[in-house]
Amino acid sequence: MKKVDGNDYKEAVIKTMWNVTAKQLQELYFNKFGIKFDPFVDLEFKGSRNARDAKRRNLQIQPEKRKTSSSILTLEEYNKILKIYNEDTPDGLQKMFFYVAGLELAWRGCEGVNVTIKHFKEESDNCGLPTGRIEYNCIFSKTAQGGSHKLTDSKWLATNTTDPRICPVRLYKKMLSKRGKHITTDRLFLTPNPAWREPSSVGWFKNSPVGRNEMGKWTRTAAEEIGIDIKKKKISNHSLRSTAVSQLAKAGVGEEQLIKITGHANTFSIKPYLQLDGDHHYQMIDKLRANSTAMEESNNKSTNCAPSALVQMSKNIVTTSPSTQTPVNYYNCTIINYNS
């Protein structure tokens, strides 16, 4: 895939073009022939995926072609953003849930725009009682096509007992309770009603979803409000996804587990998200030093124990040796040198 003038596209463009084409094929075969297949994992497309990945690796070597990932937020910055908003207002409630769910579900930058209430399902136990968890499954997403048939792993929102203020389950239920009877769209994030405080108001929200461009500015605007220099640091809604992956990796979660959360088909795709911050680097160095110290102590212990162990062996074992063997004593222990 090249431009008309023969130059290469940027690495991110190659990825997008392949994914969009694959998605269109997926939808075409399902809608026209009723055939379900997933080009992101099916063996028939393995050669095509390998060619795409090889091209992307070559382009990543070139700085002008390399994708610039959204910067991660430190946990301090993330918590500052959460403190900006008041959940007792339409705008504040939606944004608080967006930032909590966006991090815990590792949403893509534009995923929140397309989220509907049908993507969430409250879990119940065998007795029909709620478990406190909400299942999230983006049924018809970039990586999962096929009508109502689930082809992607579910993710879960769990009750936060440590800090109920940012509990995603509680915030989600509160959002549903504020949807008036006039709401007919199933989109989750709605346009706030400016007159929501008025007694004659129809409710907190209008019967229209938040626009893509409007929601796309949420995290960037919040970051600027807490003092982050957005000219030096690339902040977007996708930063929540990058933050989730980096923080989980920092906590020791392996790449195979990470792709279950992000929905990627292979570990290669999450490499751009793994951004090393100062704290993470210090933790890695501390582990390296700890391992080095433990190994040195173990070697010293083995060296200190060796003489006594060998002495005991020399006392208990009688060996008939050829006449050509010459005994040599170290640490009062008899060691045989074989002279051929």
UniProtKB/TrEMBL annotation:
The keyword Phosphoprotein belongs to this UniProt entry's keyword annotation: yes
Gene Ontology biological process terms, A to Z: DNA integration; DNA recombination
UniProt-listed InterPro entries: DNA_brk_join_enz, Integrase-like_cat_sf, Integrase_catalytic, MAVS, ZMYM2-like_C
Matches recorded under Pfam families: DUF3504
Chain ranges of the Tyr recombinase domain: 68-295
Ranges annotated as spanning the membrane: none
Keywords in alphabetical order: DNA recombination, Isopeptide bond, Phosphoprotein, Ubl conjugation
Gene Ontology molecular function: DNA binding
Name used for this protein in its record: Tyr recombinase domain-containing protein
